[in-house]
Amino acid sequence: MTSTNKKWYSGMLETEDWWAVWLGLIMFFAGMASIWGVDLVGWMTKLKTWEFTHLMADFSWSKLLKPAGKVYKGMHPLLSLMTTYGVFLTLTMIGAHFQKLNLRKYFWGFTIIFGITWLAWIIGHEAHFKAVDAIVKGKNYFEKYDLSWGLQLGGGFSYMLALAFGLIIGNFFKGFATFLKEAAKPEWFIKTAIVYLGIKLGVMSMKATGFTMELALAGAAATFVAYLLFWPIVYTLARRVFKLNRDASAVLSSGISICGVSASIATAGAIRAKPVLPIAVSMLIVIFAMLELVILPTTYATVAPNQPMVNGAALGMTVKTDGADAAAGAILDEMMVSAHLKKTGEKWEEDWILSAAVLTKIWIDVFIGVWAFVLALVWVYKVEKTPGKTKVPLSEIWYRFPKFVIGYFIAWFFYVAVTIWFPEITGLAKEGANIVQSPMRKMMFMLTFVSIGIITDFSKLKGMGKLALLYAIALFLVIAPIAYGVAYIFHHGMLPPIGH
Amino acid sequence: MRTNINFTLSHDGIDWICQNSIIKVKGNNFAALDTNLCKELKQIPEYETVKEVEVLMNFDYSTIPLWLRQYMAHYFNRKVTLWL
Question: Which position among A30, A217, A437, B34 has the lowest Cβ density within 10 Å, counted as fewest Cβ atoms?
Fold first, then answer.
């Protein structure tokens, strides 16, 4: 069956991008029901910090898990987990049906990925990995469990473990990875998580309006850097030094400089390159995005522990693909917040560093349609020289617009509007919103980590020597240093507010 | 006389293919595709008196690998004027 974009509403039921909006907004509005005293999301499972010997001495599921909502306090933790599984399986299966995925494969794939995700998440909450030797919300888990050692990684260990599980499957159990691929949808999961993050930004906007706006505007500036600085440099490098042809240079430049796979496909489409070109480039981008995700958060956190917002924004400009960028931002956030807490006893509020990474990236994503349109005009008028014969429809900008951004801004602005216009119900709104933007969003992040590992096969680098070399040079010698410099100009000295 | 005509566009690894319920035409590049399409259209009685056609080729995104579709949901739609 063919799939074409003919109308402005094409794809609203068939694409992952739109389904991220639907899943995001369904849960957002379900969370908002708390305004009327109805808890529709409190069944969501929340993790607890636990310690191995304490757990083994007297095993109880309630030491590991609990329902997030007060109304569901009496619910058995396993029933809460089964409900979480059931709700997300059902919702994503509906999405999978409309996306014409193989539902049987999706069911088993999602079930296994969900299981791996929660296994990694539970292990990651073991006190020796997670607990930081400091008082948080009146508790010091390090002292509570009388730990003699600990990695003190905060929630970051869960993310790394989930990624490691995914990578092991993707690279050592390839048959199994192929089986899981129907449900391994990192972009879908992360875009849904980003819509949930919109709520968080709403909550944060109310706490620190000026800071949030500054973050948003600095992100906008990053857009100019990606399109007008990175792209021409990488394109020139590709043409002059690596002698690539015009099409390959343009597709690769967009992939490396702008927003990864989506940019390379958009550019290839704009210049009407043969589809095999963006497919090959995309394989390269996915693998490099994984390397960026593993290397950059640790590097930035180690080299610049006092520049959290600079580090976050630099990730947003450097790490390609939304999934890898948000994942890298989440790891960096957990690492830096934990390290700062360990060092000073002061807890930065979580998710500001992540938001810097995501907001920067979203600004870049938003303009990919416009950029592709400009490239299409350049190709028609200057390269192919067929003006009059070939026309570039304006609708192409809309078709390439990342739709999940709509969900992100709706969640953000709706939450802000509710709290500004109806301040008396802010407390009630926050109850539901907090469940969606915290445990639910983090679960989508965890699903992303496992999935992104599953679809990353490092052996695909074979035979891509020239392209891979160009990618590595452009990334580490051009993009990463310039991105860091620009992020420093806009964000240096900015620190997340102090949490509780 | 000028008329509009819609096709679905895909690529088989070697050729671009544009087709609808009546016509299926291949070409190694767009110039060849357009030339072949003009030839094909001229043979259809309905287009005997037509001098100019506005052709819209909607790329069939289902030909893009499944794992890649989650990143971007659109390749391109090609709008071209052909003189028969």
Answer: A217
